[in-house]
Specification:
Elements (H helix, E strand, L loop, with lengths): L11 E6 L3 H14 L3 E6 L2 H6 L7 E7 L1 H10 L9 E8 L2 E7 L1 H6 L2 H4 L1 H22 L2
Antiparallel strand pairs: 1-5, 2-3, 3-4, 4-5
Helix pairs in contact: 1-6
């Protein structure tokens, strides 16, 4: 445990792999597309740090969503849209890379008391899609 590792937390999934970061990143992008989801955002500090002469482990956050889910979420709960897209976090480790994400079910459950069950149902519907993306990306 420590600040240099992604540890499991309530509402999170964490998969440690032996797949090198440079191979897992394109596999994750491909898995998003293969599961009919959209790669909405992508950001990370690694390349910008390298441009400044700083070498840090690979680190990337990919925001994943799809317009039909966005429309339904917006109709169900405007404040919950701050959570879209739901993000995967990919971090390079000495052994390979770690893939982590807050489950959509946990992310959107926080809005059920204010907005009703429809927003929670969207999260629950997204959970197996995110699992499928992760399984596909991390498969041997």
């Amino acid at each position: 445990a420590g600040p240099d590792r992604i540890e499991p937390r309530p509402g999170w999934r964490v998969i440690e792999t032996a797949i090198p970061y440079a191979k897992l990143l394109p596999r994750l992008r491909e898995a998003v597309a293969a599961e009919a989801m959209g790669l909405v955002t992508e950001a990370g500090p690694t390349e910008a740090a390298a441009a400044r002469g700083e070498i840090i482990p690979g680190d990337r956050v990919l925001g994943v969503f799809r317009n039909d889910f966005a429309v339904r979420a917006l109709r169900a709960c405007v404040p919950a849209m701050i959570e879209a897209p739901v993000r995967f976090h990919l971090a390079e480790t000495p052994q390979g890379a770690t893939l982590a994400w807050k489950t959509p079910g946990a992310v959107f459950a926080a809005y059920v008391d204010d907005c009703g069950p429809a927003i929670g149902e969207i999260g629950a519907e997204l959970d197996p899609i995110f699992e499928a993306i992760a399984r596909r990306a991390t498969a041997p």
